């Protein structure tokens, strides 16, 4: 029996020209999308109704980032995703599985909280000077002049001339002076900075534990909640994955481990990471900073080829930013709409737009894309 959406008659053509001539536009569209969509769940979609709509327009994996929200809130989110999946399956009268993934905070370095004096953001102006410190006195007192960084050995492992990128690389600093717990930086690209934003240092691998105490508690929670996937961030070699497997133990042996490749070190040790991982995510943003943006496409193609040689199909993170530039979608996180109903509508529209935008990604060697909502 011919399956809906397939051009089986055309496939028996003897030449490329005959194949094109026998394509039937009256056939219904293909019954299966080949690219999966990972949605990082946020507060804007933390209700069952919105989650059901996201499932209906293409969400395959719901990713919960443990960096944000309490552990109890994350557990509640897992329950809501499963409830939404159950409800949607009943409506469709068939099983429509949606996997649940936990994204660990890992070695992520973040800034502190903005002082109440300055509101929710501080304005870092290009050409001016700002100090970065690991002194906990400034943990909740960040200002345009001093920013707290939550890694104690941060300053000691830096050197003059290093670049410091803040808030998804929107803000760029250059290290000029280093002291015991503080370093003075020149602002080369300014902008508004909020609380607890990520800090990224290109081409520097810090000597720090693979998983924090909070990560270990989140891993225990993931095992108890029987999640499907754990995303291990900042994987530079096989060591973090092996350590994660030992923490999971026998009860978590069925959980898939996906490694995020974000650095030049991870690029170099890619084969040994593949050997111990269930999957990999190539994070284009951070990797592009480490290997230079002009060489990113070469690095990306090389990683995809190496993964396919090892019988892996890698996930490509951050590809949706290219779709944004093409006008297909806009990033929801830059929208500042206080109307909750509009937020929920925008999230669903965003996932639906991504569904269509992915048709512009022409590589059949990539099976998933990551979208943050």
Automatic annotation (TrEMBL):
Pfam family, one: PK
EC main group: transferase
Source domain of life: Eukaryota
Signal peptide start and end residues: none
UniProt KW keywords: ATP-binding, Glycolysis, Kinase, Magnesium, Metal-binding, Nucleotide-binding, Pyruvate, Transferase
InterPro entries in alphabetical order: Pyr_Knase (IPR001697), Pyrv/PenolPyrv_kinase-like_dom (IPR015813), Pyrv_kinase-like_dom_sf (IPR040442), Pyrv_Knase-like_insert_dom_sf (IPR011037), Pyrv_Knase_brl (IPR015793), Pyrv_Knase_insert_dom_sf (IPR015806)
UniProt domain Pyruvate kinase barrel: residue ranges: 33-310
SUPFAM superfamilies, A to Z: Phosphoenolpyruvate/pyruvate domain, PK beta-barrel domain-like
Reaction(s) catalysed (UniProt annotation): pyruvate + ATP = phosphoenolpyruvate + ADP + H(+)
Cofactor: K(+)
Keyword ATP-binding set for record: yes
This enzyme's EC code(s): 2.7.1.40
Family as reported in the entry's similarity comment: Belongs to the pyruvate kinase family.
Protein name: Pyruvate kinase
Organism (species): Eumeta variegata
């Amino acid at each position: 029996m011919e399956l809906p959406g397939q051009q089986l008659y055309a496939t028996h053509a003897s030449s490329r020209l005959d194949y094109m001539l026998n394509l039937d536009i009256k056939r219904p569209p293909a019954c299966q999308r080949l690219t999966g969509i990972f949605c990082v769940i946020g507060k804007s979609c933390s209700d069952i109704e919105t989650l059901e709509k996201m499932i209906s327009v293409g969400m395959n994996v719901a990713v919960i980032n443990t960096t944000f929200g309490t552990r109890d809130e994350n557990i509640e989110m897992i329950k809501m995703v499963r409830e939404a999946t159950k409800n949607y399956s009943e409506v469709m009268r068939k099983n429509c599985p949606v996997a649940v993934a936990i994204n660990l905070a890992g070695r992520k370095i973040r800034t502190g909280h903005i002082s109440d004096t300055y509101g929710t953001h501080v304005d870092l102006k290009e050409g001016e000077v700002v100090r970065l410190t690991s002194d906990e006195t400034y943990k909740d007192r960040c200002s345009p002049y001093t920013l707290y960084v939550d890694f104690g050995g941060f300053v000691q492992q830096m050197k003059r001339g290093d670049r410091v990128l803040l808030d998804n690389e929107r803000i760029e600093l250059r290290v000029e002076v280093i002291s015991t717990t503080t370093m003075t930086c020149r602002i080369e690209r300014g902008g508004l900075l909020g609380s607890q934003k990520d800090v990224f240092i290109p081409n520097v691998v810090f000597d720090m534990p693979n998983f924090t105490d909070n990560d270990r508690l989140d891993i225990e929670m993931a095992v108890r909640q029987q999640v499907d996937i754990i995303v291990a961030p900042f994987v530079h070699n096989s060591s973090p994955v092996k350590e994660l497997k030992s923490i999971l133990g026998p009860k978590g042996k069925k959980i898939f481990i996906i490694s995020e490749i974000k650095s030049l070190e991870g690029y170099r040790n890619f084969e040994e990471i593949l050997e111990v991982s269930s999957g990999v995510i190539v994070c284009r943003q951070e990797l592009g900073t480490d290997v230079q943006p002009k060489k990113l496409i070469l690095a990306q193609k090389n990683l995809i080829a190496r993964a396919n040689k090892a019988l892996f199909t890698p996930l490509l993170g951050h590809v949706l930013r290219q779709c944004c530039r093409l006008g297909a979608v806009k990033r929801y996180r830059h929208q500042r709409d206080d109307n909750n109903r509009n937020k929920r509508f925008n999230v669903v529209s965003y996932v639906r737009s991504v569904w269509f935008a992915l048709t512009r990604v022409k590589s059949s060697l990539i099976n998933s894309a990551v979208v943050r909502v």
